[in-house]
Design brief:
Blueprint (H helix, E strand, L loop, with lengths): L3 H18 L8 E6 L4 E6 L4 E6 L9 E4 L5 E5 L4 E6 L4 E7 L3 E7 L5 E8 L2 E6 L5 E6 L1 E3 L2 E2 L2 E7 L3 E6 L4 E6 L7 E5 L6 E6 L5 E6 L5 E5 L7 E4 L23 E2 L2 E5 L5 E6 L5 E6 L4 E6 L5 E6 L7 E5 L4 E6 L5 E6 L5 E6 L4 E6 L5 E6 L3 E6 L9
Antiparallel strand pairs: 1-2, 1-34, 2-3, 4-5, 5-6, 6-7, 8-9, 9-10, 10-11, 12-13, 14-15, 15-16, 16-17, 18-19, 19-20, 20-21, 22-23, 23-24, 24-25, 26-27, 27-28, 28-29, 30-31, 31-32, 32-33
Length: 391
């Protein structure tokens, strides 16, 4: 005869034991910071403003970047040495890794999270991987002339399982439709301007804008147009002035858009350009402390934060988007390389490579809320990026 009370007690014990072994952990307030010198990533918690652990052995992480799976549980890390690693955040373990090129410069993930795409310098092109096991799905060389491969920059994901990227050496922009990833369809835009070096997609996925290193101006494509074509915007923003030496290439991403205005770094100039995203005409330029590298709008668009190339790379300035003026400046450490806002923008995390620290700054009071030690930190990436286009 079955002893029912004992049976239920046994099942309850097993259930409790199972729950104790597999705790559920959310990832919405987690993030990773790249520690480039040591080839490691440090796991961060933005709620407790603390570091949770370190994952090592990831190779050359200079200029490394990463993207997240839809659930924020996995990060795909693009190393400069061409390695692509898949990291499980809750367990802090590398669960897959492939050597996919000789020199990589970042990547993106598809709208549905199924495909991870790496952009490469050597050999030039993009490669498409299955997000589950990192098996190769498609190889798209950036061959713009017989035997000539271009370095690829400015890769961004688009709605509709598409990716867009620029060919630095070919003055071209390519659009890859991966709705059938093993048979990708490529659309090519030629003569977009000299040396597109980086690019952004607006948060609605409509406009792709590539900065041009070889000339004053930018190339823009309206991806909602019936027949998309390249349009030059901000031609001659240097206004005939002598080009200045560029100490570090500025970065472009969708975070530069605040309301209907875009805030863009002017190459080699101590200015931030303000552009109306309806007309794509310059409406203002804001003098800043040095050559801007990252120009990033807070999630609410109220302020824009700017860091700089050498010799001004210990400074950060804050622009008020209503008055279009710098309202705050400070020095959070030596060699400020990156900034990342918490999902709702109450704080910004700033990496200072040569100070070996990360600072957490209150975006209203500008008070320092916390400092965390890190080994030569560079890029900071929060899991909230998983829910945004173009990051």
């Amino acid at each position: 005869m079955i002893n029912t009370p004992k049976l239920w007690a046994g099942l309850a014990t097993l259930l409790l034991a199972a729950c104790a072994q597999t705790p559920i952990q959310g990832t919405g307030d987690l993030g990773l910071v790249v520690e480039r010198a040591s080839g490691s990533l440090q796991l961060l918690n933005t709620s407790t403003r603390s570091a949770l652990g370190r994952v090592q052995g990831l190779g050359d992480l200079s200029h490394a970047s990463l993207v997240y799976s839809r659930d924020g549980a996995y990060a795909y890390v693009f190393g400069r040495d061409g390695a692509l690693s898949k990291l499980h955040l809750p367990s802090q373990r590398v669960v897959a890794r492939v050597q996919q090129s000789g020199n990589s410069i970042g990547g993106a993930i598809s709208q549905d999270g199924r495909w991870v795409v790496a952009q490469n310098y050597q050999p030039g092109g993009i490669k498409v991987f299955d997000a589950q096991d990192l098996s190769l799905v498609a190889d798209i060389p950036a061959e713009y002339a017989p035997g000539k491969l271009s370095r690829v920059v400015g890769l961004a994901d688009l709605p509709g399982q598409r990716f867009i990227f620029s060919l630095f050496d070919a003055d071209e922009i390519w659009l890859a439709d991966l709705s059938q990833p093993r048979a990708p369809r490529i659309s090519k835009f030629s003569h977009v301007g000299h040396q597109p070096y980086d690019a952004l997609v607006t948060p609605d996925g409509r406009h792709y804008i590539a900065g041009l290193f070889g000339e004053d101006g930018l190339a823009m494509i309206d991806l909602w147009a019936a027949e998309p074509k390249v349009q030059r915007i901000l031609p001659g923003y240097g206004r005939g002035q002598q080009p200045l030496p560029v100490f570090k290439m500025p970065h472009l991403r969708g975070w530069a858009v605040a309301g209907r205005l875009a805030y863009l770094p002017a190459i080699g100039r101590h200015e931030v350009l303000v552009v109306d995203t309806q007309s794509w005409a310059e409406v203002a330029r804001i003098p800043v402390a040095g050559q801007p590298v990252f120009v990033m709008a807070q999630p609410d668009g109220r302020q824009v934060w700017v860091n700089f190339a050498v010799p001004d790379y210990d400074q950060v300035q804050v622009i008020d988007t209503q008055s279009q003026r710098v309202v705050h400046a400070f020095k959070p450490g030596k060699a400020v390389l990156h900034m990342e806002f918490t999902p709702r923008g109450e704080a910004v995390w700033i990496s200072a490579r040569d100070s070996d620290q990360i600072s957490v700054i209150d975006t209203r009071s500008f008070a320092t809320l916390a400092t965390l030690p890190a080994q030569a930190p560079s890029g900071i990436f929060f899991t909230s990026r998983a829910q945004r286009i173009g990051l």
